[in-house]
Every structure is written in structure tokens, then in C-alpha cells.
Amino acid sequence: MKTFSLELLSATEQQRIDGVISFVGEDASGSFGILAGHMRTMTALVFGLARFRRGGKGWQYLALPGGLLYFFDNQLQICARRYLIDSDYERISGLLQQQLLAEERDLHAMKESLRRMEESILRRLWEVGRQSPGANNT
User: 81 with 10: CB under 8 angstroms?
Assistant: First the structure.
């Protein structure tokens, strides 16, 4: 059975996994699979779970907050901010859900902070406009 290598790259770690027989991931167009000998491919992975299998072993799940996938010459490279690998689907699904909720909370807090900053700037501009000489103070 033909195999390929999977190289995972993140901001803090790098891991190479040899002997991979199949990979299943998802991009904006939907799910897709890669086997050894696949044509050159590059795509942006969406937030979620991908999976891969090595000869004679069960699926390994790969949780990603999105990432870039590049396959060429039987080398699959995935670059992401971070990733988690686990053979237990339930456990990794829970971890992914926690990550998603944490990122949503952070995004909401950032949007709220930007909204307050924008309000403050507009208020300050309004006050400066009222105090400017020649402004119509009615």
C-alpha cells in the first residue's frame, strides 16, 4: 500500500508523521480526501476536525482553527496557528468545542472594545467641534 508523509507546522511546534495512507479534510468547498500519488494540491482548511490514517491503525483526528494545506510529491504539509491530535473522537471534539467557544468570547470582547473606542473617539470629535472657534454654538 502506498503511503505519504504528513508534516504539521504551528507557531510553537513541528511534527512529521510517516506512513499515512489517507487524509480527509475540509475547505470552503466541502470535504475532500487525499491518498498517496494525489496531484499537487493547495487549499485553505476551515476550522474543524480533519483525520488521517496510518497503515493498520485507526483514525487519528486533527483539530485545527483553520490552516493552509499543501500536497506535493507525497508530502502533505499543514500550517496552522495551532493543532491538536487525538485518536479519541469524543475527547478531541470536546477540546475543539472549548476552543471555538473561547475564540468566540475573545472575538466578542474585541468587538465590544472596538465599539467603545469608536464611541469615545466620536464623542471627543463632537466635543472638539463644539469648542472650535467659528463653530455654530446654538
Answer: yes
Contacts of residue 20, defined as CB under 8 A and 6 or more positions apart, other chains included, come to: 3, 4, 5, 6, 52, 53, 54, 76
Cut 0.85: pTM above it: no
Read off the DSSP letter of residue 136: -
Burial class (CB in 10 A: 0-12, 13-18, 19+), 36: middle
Residue 133 has phi, psi (to 5 degrees) of -65, 140
How far apart, in whole angstroms, are the C-alpha atoms of residue 88 and residue 2?
A: 25
Q: What is the pLDDT of residues 75-118, one digit of tens each?
A: 999 999 889 899 998 888 888 788 777 877 888 899 999 999 99
